[in-house]
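Below is a filled-in request sheet from our internal design queue. Each sheet records the structural input a requester submitted and the sequence that came back. We keep these sheets so that new team members can see what a complete request looks like end to end.

REQUESTER: design group, bay 2
PRIORITY: normal
MODE: inverse folding
CHAIN LENGTH: 271
BACKBONE (tokenized):
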């Protein structure tokens, strides 16, 4: 009997085609809209186990070498992200979804009133105890936040991890104030580097990454949630090896839209 894969969250098509198998998971492609995703039901995955302490301290294969040990570098990157956000909204209320250990929030609170939501009990507790941050442990939907209260909502490399990104974006849209912005980053499977790398693309990493968006499928998912794309910028890298990963080459590739991560800015569609 042929395996049965779950339907596409973007267009609802129920007949995806198997593209490849990796690390025990089936990577499928939607025949209708082209979304690439893990075909198995995410509810079968033990998220508490894969996002435990080892995920952040280097004790788990194929993920962070030592997330907590890289605090200095990650906070420097967070400051650059904050600078970019301030070009859109100089102040206001900011919610970071999937805030991990809180490195971005602790830099953002210099300019914004901040809150966080984080699924991992380990990292959310770290953010509260180390930095005194207001971080809810659980999913965005479980947080039960009041509507229309945030000027900015961020999801840094998060949307590909969650089992139901359509529900997350819909809830985020509900939480945005009129004129608010949602900014997210995620891998761009339509990038030249991803297409050239195929199964070896470094962001093709189930079960941590469940979805592999292109710019087109990301825009369609946002529209389904009531969000309109205001802009997309390239981030990430464009090749393998030390030369491709050097800071000047990364900056040049991103300038010309060659990076394999996209940064998408959304606004809530008027009712």
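RETURNED SEQUENCE:
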């Amino acid at each position: 009997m042929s395996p049965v894969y779950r339907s596409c969250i973007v267009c609802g098509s129920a007949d995806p085609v198997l593209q490849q198998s990796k690390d025990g998971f089936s990577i499928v492609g939607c025949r209708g809209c082209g979304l690439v995703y893990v075909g198995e039901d995410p509810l079968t995955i033990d998220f508490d186990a894969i996002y435990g302490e080892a995920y952040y301290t280097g004790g788990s294969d194929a993920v962070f070498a030592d997330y907590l040990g890289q605090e200095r570098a990650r906070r420097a990157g967070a400051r650059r992200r904050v600078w970019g956000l301030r070009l859109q909204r100089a102040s206001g209320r900011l919610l970071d979804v999937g805030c991990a250990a809180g490195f971005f929030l602790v830099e953002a609170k210099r300019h914004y009133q901040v809150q966080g939501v984080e699924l991992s009990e380990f990292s959310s507790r770290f953010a509260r105890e180390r930095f005194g941050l207001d971080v809810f442990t659980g999913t965005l939907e479980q947080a039960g936040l009041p509507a229309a209260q945030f000027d900015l909502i961020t999801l840094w490399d998060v949307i590909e991890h969650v089992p139901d990104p359509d529900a997350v974006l819909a809830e985020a849209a509900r939480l945005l104030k009129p004129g608010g912005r949602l900014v997210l980053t995620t891998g761009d499977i339509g990038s030249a580097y991803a297409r050239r790398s195929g199964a070896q693309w470094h962001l093709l990493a189930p079960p941590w990454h469940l979805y592999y968006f292109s710019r087109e499928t990301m825009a369609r998912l946002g529209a389904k949630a009531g969000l309109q794309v205001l802009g997309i910028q390239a981030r990430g890298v464009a090749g393998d090896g030390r030369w491709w990963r050097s800071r000047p080459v990364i900056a040049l590739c991103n300038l010309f839209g060659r990076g394999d991560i996209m940064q998408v800015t959304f606004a809530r569609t008027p009712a």
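SHEET NOTES:
- The chain has a mean pLDDT of 92.
- The radius of gyration is 18 Å.
FILED BY: M.R.
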